[in-house]
Amino acid sequence: MTTRTRTLTAPLAATSAALLTAGLLAGSVTPAAAHTGAEKHDMAQYARTWAKDQVLRPGCRSYPYRYKVSPPSDQAWGLETFLVGPGGDSVSSGALHSGSDRRKGRDTFEFCSTSTRPGKFKIRAKLTYYVGFTAHDGWADRTRFRLRRR
Q: Which residues pair with 136 in a beta bridge?
């Protein structure tokens, strides 16, 4: 499994520290506000991903997908993305957040063809956003696309 890394800059570090602090405070101050996960895709109205069918190329490559985040709060948000391959195998993951990413854009999953077989893939996305010190999180609808050999 390959994960994307980002260089930690001062503004990014400050935002990350604020998110961590808000999450820790929310957990210690309001434990009843924690997400129960009762609804399977309760963040579908606030986040989505999509990708078109692509060709699985030889070697290690980047495969693009698009995302859109529109949480009901103007405060911090984070979107975790997970690429699931044929047979339910985890292939790659990524993370986007309000400190360094736009609300709508393009990102990539990076993985190698030697450890990945062609077929149907799913993108799972988990959105977390804050209202004050309370964190709200849940899953968006899954995106499906196909990777085929040439």
A: 129
Mean pLDDT of the chain: 82
Confidence check: pLDDT of 1 > 50: no
Looking at residue 97, its pLDDT comes to 95
Domain tally, the chain = 1
Which among 65, 112, 64 has a CA at the least distance from the CA of 91?
112
The verdict on residue 144 lying in a domain is: yes
Distance CA 66, CA 56 (A): 18
Give me the pLDDT at residue 21, please.
46
The answer, yes or no, to whether residue 82 has pLDDT greater than 70, is yes
Instruction: Identify whether 49 is part of a domain.
Output: yes
Q: What is the DSSP string of 54-107?
A: EE--SSEEEEEEEEEE--SSSS-EEEEEEEE-GGG-EEEEEEEETTTS-SEEEE
Which residue type occupies 39? E
Reduced to 3 states (helix: H, G, I; strand: E, B; else coil), residue 93 is strand
Torsion of CA 14, 20, 25, 28, to 10 degrees: -160
Q: Residue 132: which CATH number?
A: 2.60.40.2550
Domain contains 36: no
